[in-house]
Amino acid sequence: MDPQVTTASAARGQGLEQPLTAPLTPFVDALPVPRRLISTEHQGQLTVRIQSAMHRFHRDLPESRIWGYDGTVPGTTIEAERGKPVIVEWRNELEDLLPVVETVAPKHADSDGIPVQCLPGLSGGIPDPRAGALSGHTVVHLHGGLTPASYDGWAENLFAPGQPAVFHYPMNQRAALLWYHDHVMGATKFDVYAGLAGLWIIRDDRERQLGLPEGPPFEVPLLIQDRNFNLDDRGRLTGQLVHKTDPDVMEAFAPFTVVNGKVWPILEVQQATYRFRVINGSNARTYRLVLLRDGDAELERVTQIGTDHGLLPTPVNLPSDGLVLASAERADLLIDFSDLEPGSELMLLNTASAPFDGAAFPAARALEAANLEGLLPFPQVMRFRVIPSPAAARITPTVLASDYVPPPLEELADAPRRAIALVERELEGQVNMLTMRELRIVGNDDTGPLVTVSNGERITRYRAVAAHFEDVTTFFPMLGEFEVWQLINLTGDTHPIHIHLDPFQILARHPMRYQIPDGGIEDLDISASVVLGRDPNDELSHQIDDNERGLKDTIRVNPNEIVEIAVRFTTYSGRYMYHCHILEHEDRDMMRPFVTIAPELMPFMA
Ligand SMILES: [Cu+2]
Prior knowledge:
Structural class: mainly beta
Distance between the termini: 70 Å
Largest sheet: 8 strands, mixed, barrel
Bound molecules: copper (II) ion
Strand content: 35-45%
Radius of gyration: 23 Å
Number of helices: 6
């Protein structure tokens, strides 16, 4: 088959029209399901080999060199039981150099005005020799894991090729979809892009009581990522992974959507209800997923039952525009195909342009989502095709989780409060620097560079006391105590902020407007005036979606808003990290440490 077939013609059944010709035929590769490793079948003792290997991302692509857990993309899915510890020997067998070509294209758009990140190849960029020289130093973080600090994957404690690493995971936590991935300081964006990501599912009795599908065929994980590939001198795709940025956009937004390691795959489904464990594992791209049949959005066919840390209290409908998932966010979905004729086809589509800033896009217009300026040349994600099958009962749980409630307001009234400003600093001739400025309240006599937050008559004055990862640690939360963290977004983009260790709950999204004077952003200091209340020109809703009212470990902080969360660290004392989960931000330098401390040790802290 001619690989140059256009996406428009291949998707005609869906009425999808594209401004660009897709260089790969969509919906020809079957959706792969990653190999499962059931921990209890191995007495909780697992070995995962971190290997260089070859992987085919699409039928019409040559094989790509990758780094993968057990040599696969995605890695093996590890399945654990709540309360049964898992010990993993992470065996680093990476023997070759980074299998990703890193480049900064010299211009944002090509001579036809097409942004280069919508196109394959290097777009005139040269391969960065420093990235090409990266050897296989790695460290594994289990995202969402309640893990002792020694095994949490501190970004500076790396395992060299050949060096043993045995990590203990207690698994004293509720059922949820987690994922494990590389977390190397400054190079996570390359290592995850190279393939170092895998899923990790925790099971428990509550989910089994509800009769939710477990394992194939009716439970299917969907790891969604974007990837780009190089071109040879005749303009043909080579399969070589390319991480490309440009002078205007510091994040890599790749044109091809990959699900479980295949570009635009297809899944044959029976006439039944399926459970999809969806996770955005992209470096930077946010997706807003819409399910279409015959060109029409059918969001009511989808019920969300879980989020980052497992089941929601009750099932919820998707937001009316579609399911938004920023990097590292998860959704546990039930999709009902039981009423559909064999041969019916549905398409999952992404309507979020990039970089994502929270802007709305109606689901009814999903077919018009292709947007070159928004670095979204090909909105399609995957296709479902219904096949004949025995009639299956529909699953309709009405009550899900009963083991948590919103944090009690009286406990929060006296809780320690921490304020963090998200700040982008433009640098001449260099990639911008993003930081999380930890703020400390100062008195009226402090005349230095200040962040003031005005809420009506009340003005709180802050001073930045830490910005970069290596600055002094200022957060020492006490185990067992609720804290309220405020994330103040002083940038134009949405940042998914991830806190390691325990999950948290969102309390509020406060609309606000702010001003930063010229020269107000220095290396550590920042001057800004923040005023609570919506700017008249602000079109974002700033609402909390129903699917965000669960236990989260990653929360989107949109422009012009302050997100307030309640977090309580419970079990483990130690040094952990919190960071933006846009990997290009995390690597430059949107990550900070915090240290959890048992209360009885607090009096001895100097
Ligand atoms: Cu960010």
